Amino acid sequence: MTRRQYFTIILILGTLTTISPFSIDMYLPGFPAIANDLHTSISQVQLSLTAYLIGIAFGQLIYGPLLDRFGRKLPLYGGLAIYLLASVGCALTNSIETLILMRLLQALGGCVGLVAAQALVRDLFPVTEIAQVLSLLTLVVAVSPMIAPTVGGYATVALGWHSIFLILAGITALIIVGIYYALPDGKAPDPALSLRPRAVLGNFFTVLKQPQFLTYALVSGIATAAPFAYISGSPDVFMNLYKVTEQQYGWIFSFLAIAIIAPTQLNRILLKRFASEQIIYTTLVYQTVVGLLLVFGTWAGWFGLHGLIGMLFLYLCGQGLTGPNATALSLAPFSRHAGSAAALMGSFRMGCGALVSGAVSVLHNHTAMPMVSVMTVCSISGLLILVAGQRVIYHKRDHADVNSASEVAL
């Protein structure tokens, strides 16, 4: 593979992984304009985000088996075509109900990029390079929340919120062209692979029976769903409550994205001295304390705009530590069923994000309390699940050690 081919493939895979982050973050500055234009409320517009997260949660479970059965490109073309058409539908909608439906379809199509990109990395690169390539793709995904809201804010002001979805459709059309002309096929179709529900569900059930997976997948899903409460609630809090402009909101969102990105690099250093279990526990305790201060301070009226931004920054710093470690621990017990485990974990994480986003919408009361309260509940729930789950894991491990020792003695 030449350097040019390497760069081209990384570029295409990187754009595939950013479809969903851009689709989530880019239209956030347009929430007030969408609500005004469609004669509805911010809380109803927030449901369009919830619908998108639900679509991602279910879509990942669907595309995993399809990509193995039919090869990489055919499901990829199909999913991206659905996404493109749904994006145009979002731009042309004249009701909030249609927007919510189109966002659901948009997610069901676009999430193929997340699954296919990871599968193609395994197909196209040597084992020794996979970690490096995935790190590059992770960096692209991490940087996208810093770019998307800013672009969306300026596009909303200059061209209206409809233009955001037309821009997304145009980008997707270019990605499809790039896939056709420059992306290798990857793994060939496997006609022997069964797509029967019983076979697929059997693999998922095998994964769910593992206590370590269930514990850390629950922790990963619930604790790391907190940013979705922030994403769902922040447009109303900042633009309606604190009266910032669309462009200013984009810059605030970009600044707070640093709080999530930076600790992922710190995690690599911490892992040299501490176990993942220790890092997760300490981080959730930290986020619970910061979250409670955030809730009490919001209720007491301590925070202005800059104070709220500062407290959110401190809280979100924990997200870059919990997610990677919980993911690693949840996948650790598996080799044969690692794909099913990854699909389940990704689906569960987005499902929790959808529930959290929906909760912020339901609790909407024109204050920051729904947003900060739901974020704090996520941390507290994650901490309680972690403590309870680790007891089950350690008990099972100790029981297995006793049985093994007994067998040796006999």
From TrEMBL:
The superkingdom listed in its UniProt entry is Bacteria
Pinpoint the Major facilitator superfamily (MFS) profile domain residues: 9-391
What main location does UniProt list?
membrane
Q: What keyword terms does UniProt attach to this protein?
A: Cell membrane, Membrane, Transmembrane, Transmembrane helix, Transport
Alphabetical list of Gene3D superfamilies matching this protein: Multidrug resistance protein D
Give one Pfam hit by family name.
MFS_1
Which SUPFAM superfamilies does this chain map to? MFS general substrate transporter (SSF103473)
Tell me the PROSITE patterns matching this sequence. MFS
- Compartmental location: Cell membrane
Keyword Cell membrane among record annotations: yes
Q: How does it sit in the membrane?
A: Multi-pass membrane protein
Matches recorded under InterPro entries: Efflux_drug-R_Bcr/CmlA, MFS, MFS_dom, MFS_trans_sf
Any one GO CC term of the record: plasma membrane
Give an example GO molecular function.
xenobiotic transmembrane transporter activity
Q: TM segments? A: 7-29, 49-67, 74-94, 100-121, 133-155, 161-183, 213-231, 251-271, 283-302, 368-388
What's a BP term from Gene Ontology annotated to this protein?
xenobiotic detoxification by transmembrane export across the plasma membrane
Q: Which family does it belong to?
A: Belongs to the major facilitator superfamily. Bcr/CmlA family.
Q: What is the designated name of this protein?
A: Bcr/CflA family multidrug efflux MFS transporter
Q: Name its species.
A: Spirosoma agri
